[in-house]
Amino acid sequence: MTHFKKSLGIGLWFMFLTFPLMVVRVNTIDNVIEWRWSNVVWVGACAAAIAWLWQFSIERRAARHAAALADPHPQAKRHTLAQRLSDDPALTRRALIVAGLLAVVFPWVTSTTQNFYHINVMVSALIFVVLGLGLNITVGLAGLLDLGYIAFFAVGAYTYALLGQHLALGFWICLPLGGLVSMLFGLVLGFPILRLRGDYLAIVTLGFGSITKIILENWDTAFGGAAGIAGIARPEFFGMTLEGRMQSVYTYYIVLALVAATIFIVTRLKNSRIGRAWMALREDEIACEAMGVDMARTKLSAYALGAFWAGLVGVVFAAHNTFINPDSFTFMDSAMVLAMVVLGGMGSILGVIIAALTLKLLPEYLRAFAEYRMLVFGAVMVLMMIFRPQGLINDMRRKYELDTADDADGGDDNGK
Amino acid sequence: MANERRKLLEVSGLTMDFGGLRAIDSVGLDIHAGEIVALIGPNGAGKTTFFNCVTGIYTPTAGDIVIAPPDGSSRRINGLKPNAITSLGMARTFQNIRLFPAMTVLENVMIGRHCRTRSSILDVIVGGARTRREERETVATSYRLLEKVGLADLAGEYARNLSYGAQRRLEIARALATEPFLLLLDEPAAGMNPQETLELEALIARIRTDNELAILLIEHDMKLVMNISDRITVMEYGKKIAEGTPREIKENPKVIEAYLGEEAHA
Amino acid sequence: MDYQYLLELFCGGVVKGSLYALIALGYTMVYGIIQLINFAHGEIYMIGAFVAFIVAGILTFSGYSGLSVLLLAAIVSVLYVAAYGFTLEKIAYRPLRHAPRLSPLISAIGASIFLTNYVQLVQTPDFLPFPELIPEFEFMADISSLLSSADLVILVVTALTMIALTVLIKFTRIGKAMRATQQDMIMARLVGINVDRVISWTFIIGSILAAIAGVLIGSRSGQINAAIGFMAGIKAFTAAVLGGIGNIPGAVLGGLLLGIAETFGAGYISSAYEDVFAFALLVIVLTLRPAGLLGKATKQKV
Ligand SMILES: Nc1ncnc2c1ncn2[C@@H]1O[C@H](COP(=O)(O)OP(=O)(O)OP(=O)(O)O)[C@@H](O)[C@H]1O
Ligand SMILES: [Mg+2]
Fold it and tell me: What stretches pass through the bilayer (chain C) (predicted)?
């Protein structure tokens, strides 16, 4: 009952709080005030309902904490899908094969020669999957909060656009170049700033991201200014340029291959000497350094590697859109990639993929949702931190097995 | 017996200031091969700060820290980064346990192997035979260390789920994984019950003989200190007030005064 | 050297800087107590400007005008924004008091995005013309090229606010409790200070300062928008870091320095890159002197 009363009180509080902004609108063109009284009712009802849920969830969270403290080794652990996957390599392999097959046939079953909208949507989504996985290295594994990640994406995209424009270099040459240039940026920028404490680092990277955008916007002669660069070549297929649907399918397979390669490499890194050092750094910098890990080098490698992926996929982005301008590289885009990592679960590859697909595809197909997209992202980031900081999919640590008997595919395959 | 042996660590005139506070005032300390030396003193005496200076977490205001690893070299390590010092062969544990909570017990120890392994990012991506062998060796070595401290059964558990005593032992295993010639333990028995403390005592003795290393130990449990140490150094208010065998220390009036004084204030 | 121009830039910089300082104080006070970059603080300031705009709109359409409208709008705005700051802390930060350090920061970023989009959705994403509420004072006519009447009001209000804040922190009960909590939260709790309440008050006071800045900037620049909080927030944070975060006089000094550096950069080099100067300053300060100009470098206890 107290819950009920409290919820009502909170409902009233929010009716008061949102009153000027939600009810009154000053129409400066006709010089009248619009009163939107119905909003008051909505806000009150929703706030009360949410408050009720909130109290309930906070209590459950507290109970969970208490239970975890009382008994750190619960007998009957709930077996989540992610955990079953990580414990059972055969199941993993089967799931991977099914997912791979679905991904391969996807463009053929969802498109016709006239209408291949779904493929293009999926290409954009997969580009963000790679971005999410790249940022997952920096933020999820190494714990370096990078708020300007999208700048590296921009570096890759502009590298391809400019090299194509001035030197007529093709997509396949520019793909690695875009990644490398972007990585170089990461190394040069990272070197002085990676000593900073986590929260300062976040703000400085945010600054870098914004500086990059301002420079792109204002330096017309080099980067085309706010208008951007148009007429970027699409990926060529053994010297041929494909048309229409085939072109989209081709780009789709390129990104798909990139996603697969990223998953493979990140998985390997994660369960290796390097990945463990990243995670240790995320957990406790001082202890990590005291255990002989070179902090500067380890941080720099995570930062630069994340940048590399962003640059790589930036090239694909430019080639897919054939047109780029600074508006694709705002702080909101960085925040969206970050939301993918946070929502998916820091460090969890599967989680980030699911989150990236959801966050990109949902607004695309639910137009009504698109308008509220950023509002929801913001709320999701707050709520995830409070109620599920480990993300949708908990990053399951791999169980290392002690086998001295040598076998062909040794260390890397017997876990996740 | 200790004095005929090689000096591994030679600290002289070590001074550390925090703003106006002099936490360590011109302290000297030597450690020889195979020795267990205890560093004791009332709360706030500067013991942990001494560790932090020696392991590179703080850069001392003045003084010299010289190490002489068993390979015969010798160098001054003031101002070196902690990871460089660990690579040279000194490893520590922390008074306020600092494990990697979201990593497994085994992975915590594997981090200790980082500075003794070589695989680069490219090696890992390619996954060649040498890298795989190195990874297997890392796992095997870490397992052995867990067995030694009695945690092998919990290898797959998250470090945050361990009991207090087990976390302290895990810290020791993690430090041993770096193959130190000198191990620095900061209050390893804190929070342990008498039974656990006894086991710890046996563990420390075993480590010394098995791994042929010297140990510098900060501890408040006097029974443990007296049983196990070859020599004891006593600090109070940042200064060294006494040094000697356990027997000498027990009878030293200054030390008695320092501890009784503390008791009286407490 | 053109001294007139130099002087104009200087005055412009001081006015701008004092607004930054007002916002920076909120960052610094919160950071001093809970070591959190309250990323949504810029949005609090933006909401302050919007509430003032709405109240002023209602009043002007009912036929009132002038300074009384400004005053009333400011009072309502301050009240509302205090409520927003209080609520923000309760929802987005309090449940994360004992979480790892980056969690509340991510939550703060989420809150910032949420609030920007909330205002965009329920009001408008476009720029709105803010009514001119500050009359042209006659005695300012001679120096109006250097300092407009609005600028004068800004300087006076800022100075008064800062004096009030100093008095509040030095002499009142809550101010003393704030200082105690800043030095050692655990100790403060032990001696019976209600730390939760102190934190709430810190957010409320910081938000009030931001609201004042919001009202002032609206009347000076003549237009507002739901996105103004983002840049202003980052710049104010830069100012706080520049002066030494957690340090109240530092925030004022940092704000003024930043404002002056920005106007000079824009005036002598290029106005398109105005924001770049602020960011560059931030990066330089953080890499060379992370403790800021007035801050003391401390070593983390291990
Ligand atoms: N980073 C620091 N900044 C400021 N003062 C510090 C710092 N680290 C330690 N001190 C101070 O130095 C003194 C010595 O502290 P230290 O932790 O070395 O004591 P200790 O002998 O380890 O005590 P205990 O037995 O309680 O662990 C204390 O007064 C402490 O407050
Ligand atoms: Mg200590």
Answer: 44-64, 70-93, 105-123, 143-169, 198-218, 224-245, 252-270, 276-295
Is B201 in the A-facing interface, judged by CB distances under 8 Å?
Answer: no
In one letter, which amino acid is A54?
A: W
Residue B192's domain is classified under what CATH number? 3.40.50.300
Q: Are residues B189 and B70 in the same domain?
A: yes
Shared domain for B84 and B185, answered yes or no, is yes
Dihedral sign for Cα atoms in the order B169, B171, B173, B175: negative
pLDDT given at position A169 = 85
Say if CB B2 and CB B30 are below 8 A apart: no
- Tokens representing C40 are 């949504």
Domain boundary among B112, B144, B178: B178
In sign, the C-alpha dihedral spanning A178, A184, A189, A194 is positive
Residue pair A58/A6 in contact (Cβ under 8 Å)? The answer is no
A34 at B interface, C-beta within 8 A? no
% residues pLDDT > 70 (chain B):
96
> Which one of A71, A86, A180, A273 would you mutate to disrupt binding with B, by most B Cβ within 10 Å of its Cβ?
A273
Counted domains in chain B: 2
Q: Are residues B163 and B116 in the same domain?
A: yes
With beta carbons under 8 A apart, name residues in chain A contacting B99.
283-284, 287
Q: What value, to the nearest 5°, has the Cα angle with vertex A391 and ends A385 and A394?
A: 135
Locate the domains of chain A by residue range: 2-65, 81-387
Q: Does B186 share its domain with B149?
A: no
CA atoms within a 13 Å half-sphere pointing along the CA-CB vector of A206? 23
Note the helical H segments in B8-128: 47-54, 82-88, 105-112, 121-126
The answer to whether position B94 is within a domain reads: no
Range of the domain at B2: 1-89+180-266
With a 6 Å cutoff on the Cβ, whether C296 touches ligand 1 is no
- Flag whether B136 is in a domain: yes
Say if residues B15 and B62 touch (Cβ distance below 8 Å).
yes
- Among the candidates B149, B178, B207, a domain finishes at B178
Contacts 24+ apart (CB under 8 A), B185-188: B185/B92, B185/B93, B185/B215, B185/B216, B185/B217, B185/B218, B185/B219, B186/B47, B186/B48, B186/B51, B186/B92, B186/B93, B186/B94, B186/B95, B186/B218, B187/B95, B187/B218, B187/B219, B187/B220, B188/B93, B188/B217, B188/B219
C237 contacts A199? CB cut-off 8 A: no
DSSP lists the bridge partners of residue B27 as B14
Q: For C142, which DSSP code?
A: G
Atom 29 (ligand 1) nearest CA: B44
Bridge partner list, B64: B12
Distance B98 CA to ligand 2 centre (A): 14
pLDDT score of A82 more than 70: no
Å from CA of B170 to ligand 1 middle:
24
With 70 as the cut, is the pLDDT of residue B124 above it? Answer: yes
Tokens of C201: 């008050």
Amino acid symbol at A299? K
Contact A157, A127 (CB under 8 A): no
The verdict on B146 and B246 lying in the same domain is no
CA B175 remoteness from chain centre: 8
Which tens digits make up the pLDDT trace of A387-414? 888 777 776 666 676 654 444 333 343 3
Residues B3 and B124 in one domain: no
State whether the beta carbon of B40 lies less than 6 angstroms from ligand 1: no
Residue B115, phi then psi, degrees to nearest 5:
-80, -5
- Matching residue, tokens 């945050």: B160
Task: Note whether A147 contacts C54, CB cutoff 8 Å.
Answer: no
What is the dihedral sign for C-alpha C242, C244, C246, C252?
A: negative
| B21-70 pLDDT, tens digit each | 999 999 999 999 999 999 999 999 999 999 999 999 999 999 999 999 88
Q: Judge: C51–A208 Cβ closer than 8 Å, yes or no.
A: no
